[in-house]
From TrEMBL:
One of its GO terms (biological process) is proteolysis. One of its GO terms (molecular function) is ATP binding. Residues 1-20 are annotated as: Disordered. Residues 8-20 have a biased composition (Low complexity). This is Peptidase M41 domain-containing protein. Coiled coil: none annotated. It comes from Oryza nivara.
Length: 378
């Protein structure tokens, strides 16, 4: 039996070639652009990963997310400098700030995001330093915060909270071993010598690194640094980064076991000109004492912050004329009171910052969590 093959032409086979429509050409152009944009955003990711802030910022500044009116009327989502910004991608430029040598460049990164409306709450409280009483006695401090002045001061020599009981237990254990004929004096002398050397030459970095393995201690550090970070952010001072590793802090020249690096352009400019306004000094002191205020807000008292106090005193001495001891004490009480109330008003944002730092998130994610918390609090 013979078989035959049949061919059925397409139902809508065109009789002749016709050029693609304008809308189709735009879709093809966008498809090509999408493919090339993936590569370009890969370059941005590489800049962030290598912490090359100038290159990352230049890329973002070359991206224009606005749609021209004519293109919008034609139904085309074509950007003027045609690179669409994926949601949340531009925040990542903040992660490149940590290694930036030029703090003005860090400031430009924050200002760029603020101009785009990304950092809606950056600097929203910078004028709060003009409010409230200037003379803050211990009585006024208690009325405004509900805490005694002693609770808002860092503890000296590390004898705070349960550490005094730990010391008593340690000395009791040593005494017991000696009474049992176990001579631990040589080992004890070596340990004390190492601790003293660590304190003198490394600022207690080794002890801090060991203490970080104790969760309550690590949590308190996070609370402290989140206070600095949130206050600096609300005051409009760009944050370079939050250093939580004691050895990294030592390598970066940060006093203490951890640190939050922020920058105040106005203060730097005024110091270069040989004067310092009260507004700039107040703002700096509020950020400086915010770590102590955060601990007091969460735990009812502060333990850390001795290095913050030392930095405050060194700056007070450089003023012309320098502050007296009584003036220093009053300014410290005023600063910690302002910071305490500011963090109390933004308690949800502070908790969000602590949680993000505890989870090991990058700076951009921490700040994004702060913005989300403030927005939801409204």
């Amino acid at each position: 039996m013979a078989t035959t093959a049949s061919f059925s032409p397409p139902l809508a086979s065109p009789s002749r070639w016709s050029p693609p429509s304008r809308r189709r050409r735009l879709r093809l152009r966008l498809r090509v652009r999408a493919g090339s944009s993936l590569k370009e955003w890969g370059d941005f990711e590489d800049a962030v990963r290598s912490r090359d802030l100038p290159r990352a910022l230049r890329f973002l500044q070359s991206v224009d997310v606005e749609t021209p009116p004519a293109a919008a009327a034609a139904g085309a989502a074509v950007a003027r400098v045609a690179l669409p910004v994926p949601p949340g991608r531009d925040w990542e430029v903040l992660d490149a700030c940590i290694d930036a040598d030029d703090m003005r460049l860090v400031g430009r990164a924050y200002q760029f995001l603020a101009d785009r409306g990304v950092l809606a709450n950056f600097g929203k409280c910078k004028n709060i330093v003009l409010e409230g009483p200037r003379e803050v006695t211990p009585t006024v401090l208690k009325e405004m915060t509900g805490l005694e002045a002693i609770k808002l001061a860092p503890k000296k020599w590390g004898l705070s909270g349960n550490s005094s009981y730990v010391l008593i237990g340690f000395l009791g254990g040593v005494s017991y071993l000696l009474n049992q004929g176990v001579d631990v004096r040589a080992n004890l002398a070596a340990i004390l010598g190492l601790v003293a050397a660590d304190a003198m030459f490394l600022g207690g970095t080794c002890f801090a690194q060991i203490s970080c393995f104790w969760p309550p201690y690590k949590r308190r550090i996070l609370v402290h640094e989140a206070g600095h970070l949130l206050t600096a952010y609300l005051m409009g001072c760009p944050i370079r980064g939050v250093i939580l590793d004691p050895f990294v802090a030592l390598r970066m020249g940060i006093q203490g076991q951890a640190g939050t690096q922020f920058w105040d352009e106005k203060m730097e400019k005024e110091l270069a000109e040989g004067h310092l306004s009260s507004t700039a000094f107040d703002r700096y002191c509020m950020i400086l004492f915010a770590g102590i205020a955060a601990e007091a807000l969460v735990y009812g008292e502060a333990e850390g912050g001795e290095n913050d106090e030392n930095l405050f005193r060194s700056l007070c001495i450089l003023l012309d004329p320098p502050l007296s001891v009584a003036q220093m004490a009053n300014r410290a009480r005023w600063s910690v009171m302002q910071s305490y109330n500011l963090l109390k008003w933004h308690k949800k944002a502070h908790r969000a910052a602590v949680k993000a730092l505890e989870s090991g998130h990058s700076l951009s994610t921490v700040i994004r969590r702060i913005e989300e918390a403030i927005s939801s609090d409204r």
